[in-house]
Amino acid sequence: MSTPCLPIAPAAPATRRTRQAQVAWGSRVVTVGGDAPVRVQSMTNTDTQDAIGTAIQVKELAIAGSELVRITVNTPEAAAQVPYIREQLDRMGIDVPLIGDFHYNGHRLLQDYPACAEALSKYRINPGNVGKGDKRDRQFGQMIEAALRWNKPVRIGVNWGSLDQELLAQLMDENALRAQPWDAKSVMYEALITSALESARFAQEEGMRQEQVILSCKVSGVQDLIAVYRELAKRCDNPLHLGLTEAGMGTKGTVASSVVLGILLQEGIGDTIRVSLTPQPGESRTQEVVIASEILQSLGLRSFVPSVTACPGCGRTTSTTFQELAKQIDDYLRAQMPVWRDKYPGVEKMKVAVMGCIVNGPGESKHADIGISLPGTGEAPAAPVFIDGQKALTLRGDNIVSEFHQLVETYVEKRFGTQPAAAEAA
Questions:
Q1: 316-325, 348-357, 413-422: which has the minimum mean pLDDT?
Q2: CATH homologous superfamily for the domain 19-299
Q3: Is 364 annotated in some ligand binding site?
Q4: How deeply is 405 buried, as exposed, middle or buried, from its count of CB atoms within 10 A (0-12, 13-18, 19+)?
Q5: Which CATH superfamily includes the segment(s) 307-413?
Q6: Any binding-site annotation on 357?
């Protein structure tokens, strides 16, 4: 066997190379791009006319970890309620910036409802439906005028489901004249990117600073999104928002979003992300925030909540004890984070292991900050607990679960309760 000449380098996401936008509300400033953390974004699915219901869902998303929340602004009635939504959030102490999602009539709503324009922190503009022909530039320009008047950044969000058909037809005509025409999908990719870049250029000509123009080109296919964003990242240094549009429900949407966002983020592409899940009946909207946060944490880009390592179980672990304990600990840590985030700085990087038998249990527990190796089938009814890599004690009897729970609480207080506050860069 040959001896390697160099050590194996650890994998790490590539450095992002974009300008930095600022999305603000009051004293809260969320930086996007540049050296800022990759931000988590979400969107409400309430009727924006329902100011109380929308404010409550925004609060839930913000507490779950969403740093930017988008709301639909589609009618005069919805636009009229935006200031009241902002007011309700401010009363609840929720300073998360709100993004207005505009389609078709955004130019009129921003002009006719100045309080709405002021209460929003960013405007999302879809260049595929701001108007046709001569109206397009005029109506797009009116939205940029509002952004300039109120000093708001914009996201120019192109979507292949509402792509500018005039631009697409133009590019298809040009393609037909090529000696070797591209296939239809390549033309569509080019149309998405061209729409975003030409719209950004127009916004800058109207007076927007380049760093305050965030871009996105959303599609619903994993390989399509990778192809489009790799090329978009080559052609501009605007901050980029990532998301697989219409990702789907449940496992399908979660897996597809995780795969594509993981690949692009590893390549240093993407400054904000959203997991666009269709909620299961009765499922909380916050699930998309949890998944987005887990993607960033899995890549080592962010830390949001202490991680729980748990084995999947096998024939050695016929008891469900370790499964129940792992879930209880995970649920407990997530529930505590809104308080712990300020009270125990650094706790979000803690690692907990809940293992089911002697095979990998002790070793995995040693790698965690605090871990427990529960007895598998036929093993002695004893559960060694490891703290900071060393065996600290062994739990026995019927109260192993509650005793370990208390050990975790004590560990958090002891280790993180004396740390100086050091909030992550905002």
A1: 413-422
A2: Dihydropteroate synthase-like (3.20.20.20)
A3: yes
A4: middle
A5: Sulfite Reductase Hemoprotein, domain 1 (3.30.413.10)
A6: yes
